[in-house]
Amino acid sequence: MASSPVDIVIFAPLAPIFGVLLLWFIQLLFIEFQKLLLSKIKRNHPALCRFTNFTGILFQTICHAMGYTVTKSGIAHFKVTVHYGKVKPKKEREGLFEWISNSFLFIGPFFIPAMLILGCFLLITGGIETVQSVEYTFAECSINFFTNIYVLLEKFFVLMVNIDLLHPVQLGFFILLVFLGFGIRPSYIGEDKRRKVDMLYDLTNIKNHVFRKPLYIVLLFLFPYLLSYLSVLTKTSLYVFLFSILGWLSVVAIVALFIAQMITMLIKTTDEIPGRWKLLPYITLLTSYVLMRALFYAHPIDFYLTISLVVMILSTVIVTFLLLSYKTNKFKTKLSMKSLRKKNKEDPDGTRRIIEQ
Questions:
Q1: Does residue 350 lie within any of the structural domains?
Q2: What's the rounded Cα separation, in Å, for the pair 257 and 248?
Q3: For residues 61 and 80, is the Cβ–Cβ distance under 8 A?
Q4: Which of 33, 148, 238, 273 has its CA at 20 to 30 Å from residue 332's CA atom?
Q5: CA 256 to CA 65: how far, in whole Å?
Q6: 326-340 CB burial, b ≥16 within 10 A, e <16
């Protein structure tokens, strides 16, 4: 079926944009959930929360400095603390240059940390094959965009379920994934409730920044359309490919946040276990993996890396729940069912009369 000119000119360029916005919104939800989990462990792990604050603010400040570097404003002052970051340019610029610098500040932290993960991932896996466009319609652009996202997800999943934590390069990649998962904005956990930094706070800042210069919004909106028309004229997939990269950045950020959330949930759960017993899940995590790798080194089988990871995760989960069951009252009732039935028969109204003589 022939492509509609209206579809190609007006609707087709919107398909990858909607895809990126969808992934970005999911990323924001993961960020907000991570912040909620960090606030739950803040009392028992203030050092970890300060570290995540510092990491998140560090990336935000670096992004702002990159904005000043791109606009050739220079950097006169650079300071990062646990609670705030500050960058001063050598030259104060206005107009478009100022707008670009602030764009790096508000939007950069969502994507630039993920660029490090994506770059390392591509180096380890050797690249990704993308889909080539044929008709440049809204439907085809949507299919091609999400196909490229699926290809990345599939390769990322294969890497993670077969990751070798005893290999220096792959272990370093996993540590980077966790480190950046804790540092993707906003991980800030305030010392008080006066300043609320959450998803709505960031969206408000981005909205105010974008709508402050209406002319730049028009130019920013026209730029994707020009790229789309250029792809149609040259018969390439440049437009979808560029937006696929933005989608990939959101995907790897979501994966990093998910892994960081699993670690945070483990920390939160083990905090409920009394005494030194709370260390047992972490000991199980390490020893189970090392023992399985030693076993498969002596008796090699297929999928030994995946099996080692599964055994490590399952053994840690089982040990954690057993400790919660036997060392806490997490899964216990104060009264047995038999005692409860007896109590209800003796006192059906739930009250006892005391007769004083």
A1: no
A2: 14
A3: yes
A4: 33
A5: 24
A6: eeeeeeeeeeeeeee
51-55, 141-145, 153-157, 158-162 — which is least confidently predicted? 51-55
- Could you list the residue range(s) of the whole structural domain that residue 310 is in? 275-343
* pLDDT greater than 80 at residue 353: no
Of 270, 295, 312, the residue at which a domain comes to its end is 270
* 118 Cβ contact list (under 8 Å, min separation 6): 245, 248, 249, 252
d(CA 272, CA 278): 8
Q: What interhelical angle do 96-125 and 46-70 show, nearest 10?
A: 120
| 132 and 232, same domain (yes or no) | yes
Choose one of 247, 270, 293: the last residue of a domain.
270
User: Which residues face 3 on adjacent strands?
Assistant: none
The structure's pTM equals: 0.82
Q: Which of 20, 252, 241, 22 is nearest to 148 (CA)?
A: 241
Does residue 214 fall inside a structural domain? yes
Burial 273-301 (b: 16+ CB within 10 A, else e): beeeebebbeebbeebbeebbeebeeeee
Number of domains in the chain: 2
DSSP conformation class of 328: S
pLDDT at 339 over 60: no
Q: Which residues pair with 88 in a beta bridge?
A: 77
Extract the tokens encoding 104.
């790096």
